[in-house]
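ingest -> validate -> predict -> emit
validate: passed (alphabet ok, no gaps, 380 aa)
predict: started
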Amino acid sequence: MLTDHVTGRKYTVMIREVNTYHYQIPLHRTLTDATHGEMTHFEVVMVKITSEEGPVGIGYTYTIGAGGTAIRSLIDDVIKPLILYEDAERIEHLWEKMWWRMHYIGRGGLVSFAISAVDIALWDLRGKMAEQPLWKLLGGSSRKVKPYAGGIDLYFPLEDLIAQTEKNLEEGFKAVKMKVGRENLYEDIERVEAVRNKIGVDIDLMVDANMRWKVDTGIKAARALREYDVFWLEEPTIPDDYEGHMRIEREGGIAVAAGENLHTIYEFKHMIEKGGISFPEPDVANCGGITGWMRVARFAYAHNRVVTTHGVHELHLHLLAAVPNSSYLELHGFGLERFMKDPPPMEEGYMLVPDTPGHGVQFEWEVLEEYNVQAASHQL
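emit:
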């Protein structure tokens, strides 16, 4: 329920329309990691929620090339009729309606992606109606966040990897991440050594194995990586092996980050309570949106953990700025900056949080339209 500041009238923000859009966006170059192989494009599924009062909330999720049609179908066929003409301010109520309506077919997976896009749109709408940026609406802990450059570069030739690192340093990053998980561990170690020698001792270095190893190999790799002062080892093994993550962190002697493939608060609960990760990594685009992300961040706080992020940094910027237990913000090659008006700037190694109401992301819709899957299919 909102109050008109002039008349004092109270009114409900009713959802009048829910529209979805599906885009396939090519990457500037082929990107590679240890599990997903070569990636040439990514998908974005967007949701526009229009209120009776006029403001529009924008939410979105993404895939690494497959599943976008299914996500859009869940939103159009299941979620849209569920939330139309509901009170947009009752976000927890709407989240639970979506969750339990699709619980039997999901409990995570594509369901969490679909809920995420809608939940983000609802929070964007709430911020606009309240004339508050999300980072303040959610807590307002800090005006700036420290980012790292996340490379998706497992099979880059070494000279390209070093050139990428040089570019990141020139742009002002104080931390960088590279991929590991090649066929032979010694190749990973050689590449990590080369990057560490390039960046020196004052820049934080993260490595990401993308679930590549069994636990014993992960422990062996962690022990070898300690020599290079690695800030964290990300996703060393499959996300479901909570015990394995604990062993790799404890026996390998290196901090572990994980969570981009965990889609519910319950999965994070198991992982954190097992003691398997120092850096929980919820992704707002697949863990139930802003509602789901904040639940993970608060649970992590209660267990003396800081949270980091995966992808969609323009949204995660607000979330890390909102909470007191924030770590690094990931920036990587799946960015949407080329389609945005005034993307958030970086100054002296920090990302500055915008004060625009809601999440502040404004798209160049006419530029995006070239990659609209529905429009392309209509032309066939």
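The domain at 135-363 is CATH 3.20.20.120 (TIM Barrel).
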